[in-house]
Amino acid sequence: MIGFFDSGFGGLHVLRGITKRLPGYDYIYLGDSARAPYGPRSSEEVYAYTKQGVEFLFAHGAELVVLACNTASSEALRKIQQEYLREGSPKKVLGVLIPFAEAAAARTKNKRVGVMATEGTVRSDAFKREITKADSTIQVSQQACPLLVPLVEAGEQDSARADELIRGYVAPLLEKNIDTLVLGCTHYGILEGKIRAAVGPDIKIISEEDVMPDGLASYLNRHPEVEQRVEKKGTVRFYCTGDTKAFNTLGTVFFEKAVEAEQVTLGAQAV
Fold first, then answer.
1. How confident is the model over 131-148, as pLDDT tens digits?
2. N or C: the chain end with fewer CB closer than 10 Å?
3. Which of these is catalytic: 185, 191, 240, 266?
4. CATH no. for residue 65?
């Protein structure tokens, strides 16, 4: 199976795009909804929680785990790859930063890229580091959006408050004359229509649903030793750490198909 780990619901938007692009594989999704959001948490907490999530997915049959959560990718991926996975391990853990960085570098024309992300992701400077690694001439402006994840988790993505918050968050980025905007959190994909309305038609928007399906397909093509171990029955299994009724209700909105998750416990699930 291919595992997906997210702090909550947002990764389901990514998984939706991937199952459309690669429908034949078996998938397992874990949302740590009991401890979401990850953005305000410390790097140590994010690493501990992400490691627990990865261990759960490996134990339940995943050969490859994708950290759909940008905060987990920016604050925990490198440490998991270097310290948790043993050298030569057949199990693999991937993040979302490099595909984003490559897409942003390829699409910007005026070399000014904006990033909307959680507090933790902005604090890590991960997007700025990876984008400038792809092209050192690019000027990256970041904007932390701490209220967007709680808003989406509450199911208020269609509210007038969402429009107001988005306008406030994109305003400083527009002042930087960006021509490309990275949506650096899985939850923001469901707000993409509102974000597009706020920034106007001339700014290119890069979201996980936009880059991850092709990115994963490319990885599997380049790594047949991983691809051959992944079961191919077209199944999708869902797990969450919080209330299953709330997860299933909002998860169905993100996944655009019925979601029926099983509740599990990771660690102490301190909040």
1. 999 999 999 999 999 999
2. C
3. 185
4. 3.40.50.1860
